[in-house]
Amino acid sequence: MKAVRTTCPYCGVGCGIIATPDGAGGAKIEGDPEHPANFGRLCSKGTALGETLDLEGRLLAPHIGQREAGWDEALDLVADKFSTAIKEHGADSVAFYVSGQLLTEDYYVANKLMKGYIGSANIDTNSRLCMASSVAGHKRAFGTDTVPGTYEDIEEADLVVLVGSNLAWCHPVLHQRLMAAKEMRDLTIVNIDPRRTSTAEMADIHLAIKPGADLHLFNGLLTHIVENNAVDADYVKNHVSGFEAAVEAAKSESDLAEACGLPPAQLDTFLKLWTGTKKVVTVYSQGVNQTTSGTDKVNAIINCHLATGRIGQAGMGPFSVTGQPNAMGGREVGGLANMLASHLEITNPHHRATVQKFWDSPRIADHMGLKAVDLFNACAEGKIKALWIMGTNPAVSLPRADYVREAIKNCEFVVVSDPVKTTETTVLADVLLPVNAWGEKGGTVTNSERRISRQRAFLEPPAMAKPDWEVLSDVARRMGFTKGFDYSNPAEIFDEYTRLCAVAAHQGVDLDLSGLAGMSAQAYNDMSPVQWPVSTTHTGGRFFADGRFYTENGRANMLALTPRASPSQASAAYPLLLNTGRIRDQWHTMTRSGKSATLSQHYAEPFVEIHPEDAEELEISAADIIAVNSTDGHIVARALITDRTQKGHVFAPMHWSGPWAANGRATSLVAANTDPISGQPESKRTAVRVQKFQAEWFGFAVSMQEPQFSSGYWAKARCHSGWRAELAGLAKPDDWEVFARQVFKAPEAKAVLMSDAGNGTARVALLKNSKVIAALYISREPVALARSFLVDSLAKESPLQSILAGRLSAGQPDPGPTICSCFSVGANTIAEAIKSQNLRSLDEIGTALHAGTNCGSCRPELGFLLKTIYGQPSLV
Ligand code: SF4
User: Which atom of ligand 1 is nearest to the CA of 325?
Assistant: First the structure.
């Protein structure tokens, strides 16, 4: 089959992929050696994409309520409900909530329909949760939302400062590029993060800052720059406004080390290093963006770069990395409620007129729309009468997720277009519309360094699925907007968008794609990755090299910034503070990555990191199940006792949702506090209470069929033999064999039971045709078993005796929890090899075990195992 060049659908690094279909609905996935984002590398998530392409769980036909419907009927209903709501309640009574998973062409059509034809700006995206504070910070400083630098800058810097960024797990290939550059030359990496993440482990210096103190730190850095004569006076004089006021505001800190929670000597080292190193790139991500002072924090970082003139030159600059594959594309075509397409401003009457004239649209939104959190508040208040959610799962991913679920239920008419049939959001829809998934759709995405790449289809869309842009255009035409939506392919949409960019560029807007306007469909199909701006004379590179910015006076703005306390503070009732984030091998709400058995072995259940002293105070032991409550929600998860997290703080990943765990939605806990400028929610800080879940029993299960659980704590994940599950309950069932038959749906299977009432253990194996099809392990304590052996044992048809024993036969060591997903190498195997073979480097581990030699995502954890064994504190 023909290999197709496309782009990874996960993070904002935007890696190129070569997909070769196997003719049976799957594809071989390889990194594209010619793509400038990754040069052939892929991380664990990208590498495992081939495991996510099957049609299990796909939405294959439109649904109205519970019944299947034809496209015409469903689209007529959507158009009618939206038109009626607009007629009866006005344009602002309808809303779209879209996604960084959409392609730029889909985003463009959604934005055009809402802002130019419906006449409202009530279109916002889940990118609001990810990088809206960076957008707002860029606009305040530069007059436009531009990431100044390129990935090469990160490699060319002498100092890379990673702020609020677990780059090793959340942007792994960019982290690999950074580490490769460090191997080649003298490059210092500083990680500023309250948690000791894998990124921190690989950094030269980890500043375990007090959570939320970033603004104190960068104000302090600005003061240090001034006091140590590191200001680039010429640059400031010629290109910067607001310098004096910013410096004055930054001086307010009396004890910087105390405010930041850092040892004075370590703080001093950082300040001197930053100030004394010209080629410095400061990379920031969700740890900066997802707070109620996110925009100010972004500007505090930019202030330091502007004061030193370290921007727009090789190896220098502030660098926001985005979470989603097309967060940048969405920003570019106006997917946020406060922007128009092509970086034109909704608040600028001249810009509005430009867009309306270009679209020849009947109207144009003349005020900002509702940002994500406000949009769902408006649903709860009954102000939104018709809501269309595209390619995202807000009932899991938004703060106060339980409230959001009720808000969606409260909306009179809800449409969800999605490739997945059952999510916490799709079950709330009045109309479900099946759309193409990754591998089936074609268009463009923009990565974190402004590089536009093609996503190309390499699989046929199944059944009735269609591209998002086509569904949107169909609805628009049915609403009576016949003229503006007669597209027949994404190339036409891209061409229209680039022509609008050309018009915008004439008005002085930075987002110039005029060099791509007028491309033929063939040229669009063949398009190589290209970094904007793309004019007829110039392509790509850094912005602001000439010191000219997109403000009215052409000068960059430094901002006077004063730290503000977060509204979320610990109290007697909620004494701990919750931070949420991502893990290495899962993505968002797991609708795609959860399909991969390989990815599901790294962490197979929801967990909460808690500091050892907090755990001791709360009488929580290793591997206990714990309940976490906030004023907004409640979850139950495994306790992971570790000093990775600071005392008084807990961390939970945001991925687990209803299909995977009984009660694991960490975002249900998160308060809906937002940054007043960007509207981005503070996902990094919520006051919570943690208690031990007083389980009477604990369990582990493996099964060839998907098990079904109805009560207690459970979390299930795919494994190569089928499914694995972790269990715990408050009350013991009467009969474990009956329980096993029910959860494994195997009433006819032969059961073999071993139990010991004295110590509370029970083991049940279910057999069909003499083959073990499921096994259940019960204990009064968290169950200690050779899990990685058991998850493979059913597929390998291991003997009943060893399956029931839950361990390998004599002489076969337990490999332990998976560290290297690509080669299924466990922590115990690696630790044993390090010790017995005296392995001293990642390369030596790779040679001995292959671990870390494919995608490289596990290399930080391998590095930590090395450090642990040779005398460092334990992380695992
Ligand atoms: Fe995909 Fe990984 Fe590259 Fe991100 S770093 S784009 S998840 S392969």
Answer: 6
Q: List, in sequence order, the alpha helices (H) in 112-171.
A: 128-142, 151-156, 167-170
Per-residue pLDDT of 443-471, as tens digits, reads 999 999 999 999 999 999 999 999 999 99
Q: For residue 374, report the distance from its CA to the centre of ligand 1, in Å.
A: 31
Q: Ligand 1 atom 3: the closest Cα is on which residue?
A: 15
Q: How far is the CA of 599 from the centre of ligand 1 (A)?
A: 13
Cα 281 to averaged position of ligand 1 atoms, centre (Å)? 21
Question: Which of 6, 7, 11 is the pocket-test mutation for ligand 1 (most atoms within 8 Å of CB)?
Answer: 11
873 has a pLDDT exceeding 80: no
Sheet holding 722-729, edge to edge: 713-719, 722-729, 697-703, 771-779, 761-768, 750-756
What pLDDT does 224 receive? Answer: 97
Q: C-alpha angle with apex 385: 380 to 387, nearest 5 degrees?
A: 85
Nearest 5°: CA angle at 183, between 282 and 196? 50
Contacts of 432 (CB under 8 A, 6+ apart): 59, 62, 63, 415, 416, 417, 418, 421, 426
Going along the chain from its start, the domains and CATH numbers come out as 4-52 (2.20.25.90), 63-130+326-376+410-531 (3.40.50.740), 132-320 (3.40.228.10), 576-692 (2.40.40.20), 697-805 (no CATH), 818-870 (1.10.10.1100)
- Chain centroid offset of residue 16 CA: 18
Residue to mutate, 173, 199, 596, ligand 1, most ligand atoms under 8 Å from C-beta:
173
67, containing H or E segment? strand 67-68
Per-residue model confidence as pLDDT tens digits over 167-222: 999 999 999 999 999 999 999 999 999 999 999 999 999 999 999 999 999 999 99
Ligand 1: centre distance to CA 15 (Å):
6
Ligand 1 atom nearest to CA at 38: 3
166 pairs with which residues across the strands? none
443 Cβ contact list (under 8 Å, min separation 6): 103, 104, 105, 106, 454, 455, 467, 469, 490, 493, 494
Q: pLDDT tens-digit profile of 400-441? A: 999 999 999 999 999 999 999 999 999 999 999 999 999 999
Q: pLDDT at residue 371 above 70?
A: yes
Residue type, 440: E
Among candidate residues 674, 630, 631, the one with its CA nearest the CA of residue 652: 630
Closest residue by Cα to atom 2, ligand 1, is 43
Give the bridge partners for 535, in sequence order: none
Beta-carbon contacts of residue 84 (< 8 Å; ≥ 6 apart):
none
Q: What angle do CA 459, 464, 468 make, to 5 degrees?
A: 75
Cα 8 to ligand 1 centre (Å): 6
Cα(428) to ligand 1 centroid in Å equals: 31
Most ligand 1 atoms within 8 A of CB, residue of 7, 13, 198, 448 to mutate: 13
37 vs 46: CA distance, rounded Å: 13
In this structure, the residues whose C-beta lies within 6 A of any atom of ligand 1 are 8, 10-11, 13-15, 38, 42-43, 45-46, 171-173
Question: In testing the pocket of ligand 1, which one of 32, 130, 154, 171 has its CB within 8 Å of the most ligand atoms?
Answer: 171
Q: Which atom belonging to ligand 1 lies closest to the Cα atom of 31?
A: 8
Rounded CA gap, 410 and 377, in Å?
10
Cα(835)–Cα(776) distance, rounded to whole angstroms? 34
What pLDDT, on the 0 to 100 scale, is given for residue 792? 82
Q: 563 in helix, strand or coil? A: coil
Closest CA to 722 of 709, 707, 737: 707
| 519/506 Cα distance (integer angstroms) | 19
Give the model's confidence band at 797: pLDDT under 50 very low, under 70 low, under 90 confident, else very high.
Answer: confident
